[in-house]
């Protein structure tokens, strides 16, 4: 057997993080059931990380694992754990992960109230770019969800390319390009030849009329600066 | 194995049927056993342009419905060896074509023929989708004007996503651009897009450029595919086109305004 049958590669995945001030099984069970009832399909067999940042006393990891299985959730690990908690979690067969600094932190129950809350939030893990090898033709729409979009060919008039991330077009942009579709205003559009019907970043858009001028028919980069779209040379 | 070629455009009236008749005839002239199928159910145009309208007994829909077999239905061209027409029905509605039925007929034809040419109806609805679904190659007929180019772009998108080859993840359909009704004078005046403009916008290989020509009108009035009018500009341009389709390298003609000589200027022409 050659070594090639086994491959170990690093990858990034979006995971849900569960934060809850009270990790006793009874309380967790009740609150999770309530949460799941709102969107059972969404969380079905969802991989979940338990946030232990605000937890001092070790919860019963085995019991929690069992509860998750009952509720058709998959507990894969913990994050934010002290070294002592980390060790216990690992003994229970859970992975100890580090919470990325820029992740949107969950709204946890504040410590000065008695009320507890279960809140899940998705950690923003960067995803692969979506690459389109050919030309995007009139009438076609391409959406790179949570990712950058790279188009090797041209985006034809009447075609639409949309990305939550940046958009790179190595051919001519004749159609519409919408970057930062999820609202991220730091995203940009790059194209090799600008003849767009519309460009938009985080909801701010320009029609082709506003794009005429120095950069029309030329390589260009479009970004958002103080809520204004700005055109710049691609250099 | 037969090659299935769809002649398509999106936009109507750009020269699909004219081109199907000319290219089909040209392939047969080159010794390739060729059948041209009229997918324009309800309109029937191909048999007129081929001059065999009075010989239509059964049609494509009859074959699909099992009311007639291919042998009874195919019309053999009287002028050229190796050339057959599968006419469309004028009386049925467009939904008469089913994917299974079309596939069965194409498979049967494929055993016998070198080339199967599918003359597509205009638009991007079911009929046009059916004509392109099983294609190996596509001749995208385009006039040098913005709306035709836009529709061709649209059809190219369909070829790349809605065809059998796309759905089954096979090699993509081979796409060819056929620019028809090209008028160099109007291009020079800036009233029409140039060959280069269209090529740049669509970014596919150029198969041929057919000039706007009186010969095409004469041909269709007399039920003779224009490619048989070998002295005409359009006839010659289609002959070149067929050579290129068969893999030959042929220089493009009729792209520039012909300078009229002194005699022609005096006597007209
Ligand atoms: N090169 C040409 N020069 C002059 N007239 C042409 C040329 N090509 C086509 N025509 C004319 O344009 C008209 C439409 O041509 P044709 O029927 O081949 O188009 P089509 O694309 O098949 O149309 P439809 O979409 O209705 O099926 C006809 O009158 C035909 O004679
Ligand atoms: Mg036609």
What's a quick, concise take on this entry?
With 235 residues, chain A is an alpha/beta fold. Helices cover 17% and strands 31% of the residues of chain A. Chain B is 40% helix and 16% strand.
Please provide a written account of the structure.
The complex is a heterodimer of chains A (235) and B (269). By secondary structure, chain A is of the alpha/beta class. Chain A has 5 helices and 16 strands. The longest helix of chain A has 14 residues, at 25-38. In chain A, 31% of the residues are buried. With 269 residues, chain B is an alpha/beta fold. Chain B has an 8-stranded mixed sheet with strand order 3-4-2-5-1-6-7-8, with helices on both faces. In chain B, a hairpin with a 6-residue loop joins strand 3 and strand 4 (83-86). The mean pLDDT of chain B is 93. Chains A and B meet through loops of A and helix 7 of B. The complex binds adenosine-5'-triphosphate and magnesium ion. Adenosine-5'-triphosphate (ATP) is lined by residues 9, 12-18, 40, 45, 121-122, 180-181, 210, 212-213, 216-217, 220, 234 of chain B.
